[in-house]
Specification:
Helix content of chain B: over 70%
Distance between the termini of chain A: 25 Å
Number of helices of chain B: 13
Strand content of chain A: 25-35%
Mean pLDDT of chain A: 92
Distance between the termini of chain B: 40 Å
Strand order of the largest sheet of chain A: 8-9-10-3-11-12
Structural class of chain A: alpha/beta
Low-confidence stretches of chain A: 1-6
Oligomer: heterodimer
Strand order of the largest sheet of chain B: 1-2
Order of helices and strands of chain B: HHHHHHHEEHHHHHH
Mean pLDDT of chain B: 88
Chain lengths: ~260, ~300
């Protein structure tokens, strides 16, 4: 199935992932591989567990069963001989440093300018020299079309601009994997396009991306593979033209039918 | 049509006038007159002994007392804030042990009167003649004579700063709780260590809600230092009392102390204003972004 089958070890490997909040089981055995350079768009109704699954990949949520591997390393745990040990907070922090994340609510640091937001992790976490980090940050701001907003505080930017800064901030750590958690859901409709354009550019540049979204159009144009989740399981997956154009599962059809007028 | 237009230009709010508010002016005038007369009465009242106030205002023992009050306040506040931060972080951590210890500390030091705590610290040697560093049920590593450790100064610093730490812990915890959860998530997702996330992202945002109650704490602390007079520390109030015990000029000497306390408090209020404005950056349109949509503040 697509690039996942072609290459060597996948960038992300999830096996039988279970997750519960109290008695409510939100993930009921997810299996998913994402190849290096692949763009996977995860679709599904609200409450399907797609955001939760994304947040499990960088261990913002811990899982109850199964395992998740990123770039060949199990997230959150380490195998010592035959014994699986939970990793320390610090070791988990180190694992997260190659994964970029973009949040629905942007989560920019409000007391820092756009530029300061972007260089914070490269300087403070990755130990880059300030000059180098700032030069790369300006390059990234240019890529998201916000060069002139380098010294603006988040409060002074529109939602779309904030999200583009947040994307630049995630890219600044030169991630091997980018996670997008409903990046356009908090935006006014007229601002969605500018963010999707930036993401489309990234998808074309060989970055490994997992995007949880409701933007069917984006999935159609930019995804290598579409994964449809419902009720905590992967219902159907495949190339966008297959899943979106000729869905096999009734639940996928039902979900897509609600978007007909939007497409 | 013509008349309508004329009417429209008359209704343009750009030409609006503020009607004179005679009632408010009258009230102002009345209040000013009351204040002026009250000031005049106080100034003319011989019982306040203003010449004596002037005479003792900058006297050497008063200045030394002022120094002790300021020094104690600064030291106790600094130690209290540092320890309070540690307690707040411990109390909010997932770690049961640290959380419980911090909770117990706050429970005890907030739950007992400061005056009693000061007396206990000062008389520690009657409870524990020796202070010993040792392994529990194991060998002794070091021993000190309590009387050598506890002077009025150390008792005062210990009493004030431990008590302050308990209150500051709650002030800081409230501030940390006020920071949006998404901020913590962002620092987690970027692989920041807990310490760095606190220092760079969480605390700077928490400061907006920490500073005002801390100003409150600081001003309480300045006056709380006067309690150390019970353990023979010569602070501002104690020095004033020392003088009126000899001269019997009770009211003038208390006025000396009161005026100094008010001066310090006024200075601190001004400083607090500056600090609050600093931590509000990013909240208002303080950046140099051109044409950025800036949230317009309602005029007060």
């Amino acid at each position: 199935m697509n690039k996942a089958a072609e290459g060597a070890a996948p960038m992300v490997r999830a096996r039988n992932v279970h997750k519960s909040f109290g008695l409510n089981e939100v993930l009921k055995g997810i299996d998913l591989d994402v190849a290096s350079g692949e763009v996977v768009v995860v679709l599904g109704p609200s409450g399907s567990g797609k955001s939760t699954f994304l947040r499990c990949i960088n261990h913002l949520e811990s899982i109850r069963r199964g395992f998740i591997e990123v770039d060949g390393e199990q997230i959150g745990y380490a195998l010592r001989g035959t014994r699986l040990n939970r990793l320390s907070d610090h070791a988990i922090a180190v694992q997260r440093r190659k994964i970029g994340m973009v949040f629905q609510q942007f989560n920019l640091y409000p007391h820092m300018t756009a530029l300061e937001n972007i260089v914070e992790a490269p300087i403070g976490v990755h130990g880059q020299p300030r000059r180098e980090a700032e030069a790369y940050a300006m390059e990234l701001l240019a890529r998201v079309g916000l060069t002139e907003k380098a010294n603006a505080y988040p409060r002074q930017l529109s939602g779309g601009q904030q999200q583009r800064v947040a994307i630049a901030r995630a890219l600044a750590i030169r991630p091997k994997l980018m996670l997008f958690d409903e990046p356009t859901s908090a935006l006014d409709p007229e601002l969605v396009g500018e963010v999707l354009n930036v993401m489309r550019d990234l998808a074309g540049q060989g970055l490994t991306m997992i995007v949880v979204t409701h933007e069917i159009g984006f999935a159609r144009e930019a995804a290598d593979r579409v994964v449809f989740m419902d009720g905590g399981v992967v219902v159907e997956q495949g190339p966008p033209e297959a899943v979106l154009g000729n869905p096999q599962h009734p639940r996928t059809r039902l979900f897509l039918s609600r978007f007909i007028e939007k497409i | 049509m013509e008349t309508d237009l004329a009417k429209a230009s008359l209704r343009d709010v750009a030409n609006a006038h503020q009607p004179a508010e005679w009632g408010r002016w009258l009230l102002w005038a009345f209040m000013l007159a009351v204040a002026a007369e009250f000031a005049w009465i106080v100034a003319r009242n011989p019982n306040f002994g203003w010449p004596i106030v002037g005479q003792w205002f900058t006297e050497a023992s008063i200045m030394r007392g002022l120094g002790v009050t300021l020094g104690l306040t600064v030291v106790a506040m600094a130690l209290g804030t540092a320890l309070g931060l540690a307690l707040a972080v411990a109390r909010m951590s997932q770690d049961r042990l640290f959380g419980t210890l911090s909770g117990l500390f706050i429970w005890f030091f907030r739950g007992t009167p400061l005056l009693v705590q000061l007396i206990f610290w000062y008389n520690l040697s009657t409870l524990f003649p020796e202070i010993v560093l040792k392994v529990p049920f194991g060998p002794v590593l070091a021993t000190w004579n309590t009387n050598d450790l506890i002077t009025p100064m150390t008792a005062a610093i210990a009493g004030l700063s431990l008590n302050e730490a308990a209150y500051m812990a709650e002030v800081i915890r409230g501030g940390l709780l006020s920071v949006d959860k998404g901020q913590v998530e962002a620092t987690d997702a970027f692989g920041m260590t807990r310490a760095r996330a606190l220092r760079r992202v969480i605390i700077p945002q928490a400061m907006r809600s920490i500073v005002p109650p801390t100003g409150n704490q600081l001003i309480s602390m300045i006056k709380a230092t006067s309690l150390v007079s019970v353990i023979a520390m010569a602070d501002l109030l104690y020095s004033a009392q020392n003088i009126y015990n000899r001269t019997f000029e009770v009211i003038p000497m208390l006025m000396v102390a009161v005026i100094w306390y008010l001066i310090i408090t006024t200075v601190l209020n001004v400083v607090q204003g500056f600090i609050e404005r600093y931590y509000a950056r990013g909240e208002r349109g303080t950046g140099n972004a051109d044409h950025a949509p800036v949230r317009v503040e309602e005029p007060a």
